[in-house]
Design goal:
The chain is mainly alpha-helical. It contains 6 helices and 2 strands; from the N terminus they run αααββααα.
């Protein structure tokens, strides 16, 4: 659990530091009124999106059918495996999408990776929604 929290926090820091700030220009508002207006777009505003995205992505592999016991019968994963075999002449290629997802689902090690990807997607969703609100406020 601690490793996942640290990973999510590191993902946030990475995304925060890679934000689009031009050299020599500050994104910080100068007056306190503008600071309080912008306070919802920081870490605490993004945290619910990152947690939801990380949680959904961790649960995604087992829900799709890539479980520790193998590919679940009558699942999306079984359908993907069937189509992969049909398209590749009867066998699932090693290193392909289905094989990689099954490896992640079977080892359980994919959950940390999926949590990081989900947290990143949650952060992107937050920033997209926040920029949409700013554009709406500018038009008024």
């Amino acid at each position: 659990m601690r490793q996942k929290v640290v990973s999510l926090f590191l993902c946030y820091l990475l995304l925060f530091t890679c934000g689009g700030v031009e050299a020599g220009q500050s994104k910080r508002p100068e007056n306190s009124e503008a600071r309080s207006k912008d306070s919802g777009s920081g870490f605490w505003g993004a945290l619910p999106y990152m947690v939801a995205g990380g949680g959904l992505m961790v649960a995604a592999l087992p829900l799709v059918g890539f479980t520790g016991a193998g590919i679940a019968a009558n699942s999306v994963a079984a359908w993907m495996m069937s189509w992969s075999a049909v398209l590749n002449g009867g066998g699932v290629p090693a290193g392909g999408l289905v094989a990689t997802l099954q490896s992640l689902g079977a080892s359980g090690g994919g959950s940390a990776l999926m949590a990081k990807v989900g947290a990143s997607l949650g952060y992107v969703a937050h920033k997209t929604l926040a920029s949409g609100k700013e554009e709406g406020n500018d038009e008024e």
